Amino acid sequence: MNRIVWLVFLFSSMICVVAFSTVQNFYWTRTSTGGTQISVFNPVIVGPGVCVFQGLGESSLKASGEWTYHEDRGGFSSNLGRLFFPAPYVEYSISAIMQFDPEGINHGAYGVFFETGVNDSLQDTGYIAQLDRNSKELLIKRRGNGGDTSGSEWILKRVNLSGVYPDEWWIEEHEMELTVTRVPGTMNQKQLHVRIDDQWLLAGYPIENLILPDMNFTGFWAGEGKTYFMCLTQYVKDTEQDYIPGDETSVLAWYMYQSGRIDNDPPLAKESSQPVIFKAHGTTRIFYPGGAKEGITWKAPSMIFLSGLDLSLPLAMQASFIQFKDRILMNTSGGNTGAAILKPYLPWEDSLIIFDEVLIDNRRVTELSFKAFRFSQEVDLSKRSDWAKLVLVQ
């Protein structure tokens, strides 16, 4: 039987947190007293992968609107409700399982808040990733004072899903994952990556960091029409250690951290589902020497090179966002075939690249150096004829 329950009971069954940094987690359990269900907080140490909610007091949780618990589904539903809980992290992933009511109206929307502040009046200001059944789009929107306007200035990004999924897809249960990562070397710039089920729909989308971690909230938003919310899981990144695939502790081993030498053992295509930061030991540059087997391909949502890159063989980079904070050198003389080849990460989205100094055979390429470009097709940076495929970002 459906029933209205207190917010504290809501979280006892629905919210999950999996932290892969070092934190202490607590189960939220339920007991029955005289037929009335209440929540008690039993501290239990658990490991990664266990569905838990990090121990927070009742006063930390915020909700507006009516929320109904469904025993048969093990989740909750709402119409025009908002529900928040703290996410005091710099970098994190949020995975939510949600579904439109199959027997409800044939329009509506639901979403997940991120990088959001909530005041005492439950007015939220920040961002939301919204799946809109009416327009058949994924929307990234700015919100302020508890809502958004109909003006296009509040819609930061549209991903058109019309024709991508059939009509029946919209009433099925789906998982939405949001990953928020910081841009190294900046104070207020982050990136958003969005996955629906097994498909990344957005990668490396730039957002402005407007809120301190201690004031950050995430949570659910239900638009017009009933939406079911079954679970929300949070993965917390330890921001003290950047993700460097050349680090000796990494299982990827895309290059050798101490020497900077790029690994050319099979498989020659290296791929990561997470943003990647490249840095060799000290001032060592990452390099791909001549005489190696053949060219290789790296693929990740975003790539940031903190060390220089020297190429004597082709290296293809497939990402939504690429930034060089040191020089890139392509050696094409003396039998070398060094080439940096750019590939867009998603076929329907432009990718962005930001250069430091660009050199070909130790000569600076002024057309590319210290500039930013968008690209939507494969570009061989060692070929001047391919530079026309780059669109300068002013």
Question: Describe it for me?
Answer:
The protein is mostly beta strands and about 400 residues long. The chain has two domains: about 5-235, Jelly Rolls; about 270-390. Helices cover about 0% and strands about 45% of the residues. Mean pLDDT is about 75; it is low at about 1-60 and about 240-250.
Which key features would you list for this structure?
394 residues, mainly beta, Jelly Rolls, 9-stranded mixed sheet, 7-stranded antiparallel sheet, disordered N terminus
Structural class: mainly beta
Number of H- or I-type helical stretches: 1
Helix content: under 10%
Domains counted in the coordinates: how many? Answer: 2
Would you give the CATH topology of the largest domain? Jelly Rolls
Radius of gyration: 24 Å
Largest sheet: 9 strands, mixed
Summarize the structure.
The protein is an all-beta fold and 394 residues long.
Helices and strands, with pairings:
Layout: E1 3-4, H1 7-14, E2 15-19, E3 27-33, E4 36-42, E5 62-64, E6 67-70, E7 75-78, E8 82-86, E9 92-100, E10 109-118, E11 124-132, E12 137-143, E13 155-160, E14 174-182, E15 189-196, E16 199-208, E17 217-222, E18 227-236, E19 269-271, E20 276-278, E21 286-288, E22 296-299, E23 302-305, E24 309-311, E25 314-319, E26 321-324, E27 328-330, E28 339-344, E29 351-354, E30 358-360, E31 363-364, E32 372-375, E33 379-380, E34 391-392
Parallel strand pairs: 2-18, 19-22, 20-23, 21-24, 22-25, 23-26, 24-27, 25-28, 26-29, 27-30
Antiparallel strand pairs: 1-6, 3-4, 5-8, 6-7, 7-18, 8-17, 9-14, 9-18, 10-11, 10-17, 11-12, 12-13, 14-15, 15-16, 28-33, 29-32, 30-31, 32-34
